[in-house]
Design brief:
Elements: H1 2-25, E1 32-38, E2 44-45, E3 51-52, E4 63-68, H2 73-88, E5 93-98, H3 102-112, E6 119-122, H4 126-131, E7 138-142, E8 147-153, H5 158-169
Parallel strand pairs: 4-5, 5-6
Antiparallel strand pairs: 1-8, 2-3, 4-7, 7-8
């Protein structure tokens, strides 16, 4: 009988460790990460042959930067949300074509519609690493001072659009 009593704490410890491990290995996608760190200050080449940097962002206003790829199925799924954000905030939604070719990215945007004011190229993925990308698609809200205010991992959904819109509507000093 005493042997069973000694096994109870061990069983509880194993159960707790299993629950903790399951939470670490399967974080909930779509949860917002509120940040306050600088956006990458590197210049990116753009699909239109120019250059763009996001710290500070173009127009010195709070913007959205979405990292996407033509080969990414979740990027297609979130595209209507980006189109809606682009309609609500014209000229403030930017794209970064991650580990893809300019030709494939242009075809993707031709087929799906182009919500982006400009599209930066990141063929080797280094720009995504500079952002802190964990996998496409991911969306960042960048303040007029070049600080990342919000990071949404995974495809945008309707609730995400509300959160991102709120971050763009909030005046920053």
């Amino acid at each position: 009988m005493k042997r069973w009593l000694a096994a109870i704490p061990v069983a509880l410890l194993v159960l707790f460790a299993g629950l903790a491990l399951s939470q670490l290995l399967s974080p909930k996608k779509g949860e917002f990460e509120r940040l306050s760190r600088a956006a990458p200050d590197r210049p990116f080449n753009t699909l239109d042959g120019g250059e763009i940097a996001f710290a500070p962002p173009p127009g010195n206003e709070t913007i959205i930067v979405n990292l996407f790829a033509s080969w990414c199925a979740p990027c297609e799924a979130e595209h209507p949300q980006l189109m809606a954000l682009s309609e609500r905030f014209p000229g403030r939604v930017y794209g970064v074509l991650y580990k893809d070719t300019a030709e494939n990215g242009a075809e993707f945007l031709q087929r799906m519609g182009n919500p982006f004011a400009r599209v930066a190229e990141d063929p080797d993925g280094q720009g995504g690493l500079d952002f802190g990308l964990t996998g496409v698609p991911e969306t960042f809200v960048i303040s007029s001072e070049g600080e990342i205010l919000l990071h949404v991992a995974g495809p945008l959904g309707p609730d995400d659009v509300k959160e991102v819109s709120g971050a763009l509507d909030t005046p920053r000093n």
